[in-house]
């Protein structure tokens, strides 16, 4: 497994990719641009169930990829899972800082 700090240096701050992604999700939630997949999740006729179904689907796909020892597929499905989880957090008026705080409190 590669060391994520090897290219940046051990003292470099982590990339804000989750924060950037969440900011985009929040923007899509507020602006609801036509043709945006993210916006469509906020306006879906099934409501929040559409996102809940995607979280379940992506979880299952990540589990199956792990079972099959398919690292590339596990990485891709995990990214899909995290994305849909962030959409769900936005729907519930939570954010990455709430998640970060909960994780921090656990250790």
Written account of the structure:
The protein has helices at residues 17-31, 37-43, 48-67, 71-91, 96-105. 68% of the residues lie in helices and 0% in strands. The model has no long low-confidence stretch (mean pLDDT 92). It starts with 16 loop residues before the first helix and ends with a helix. The longest helix is centred in the last third of the chain and has 21 residues, at 71-91. It has a single domain, classed as MazG-like (Helix Hairpins), CATH 1.10.287.
Top CATH class: Mainly Alpha
Ends apart, CA distance between termini: 24 Å
- What is the subunit arrangement here? single chain
Mean pLDDT: 92
Provide the domain count.
1
CATH topology: Helix Hairpins
Total strand segments:
0
Number of contiguous helices: 5
Strand content: under 5%
Subcellular location: Cytoplasm
Pathway: Amino-acid biosynthesis; L-histidine biosynthesis; L-histidine from 5-phospho-alpha-D-ribose 1-diphosphate: step 2/9
Keywords: Amino-acid biosynthesis, ATP-binding, Cytoplasm, Histidine biosynthesis, Hydrolase, Nucleotide-binding
GO molecular function: ATP binding; phosphoribosyl-ATP diphosphatase activity
Topology summary:
Layout: H1 17-31, H2 37-43, H3 48-67, H4 71-91, H5 96-105
Short account of what is shown:
The chain is mainly α.
Q: What tags apply to this protein structure?
A:
single chain; globular; 5 helices; Helix Hairpins
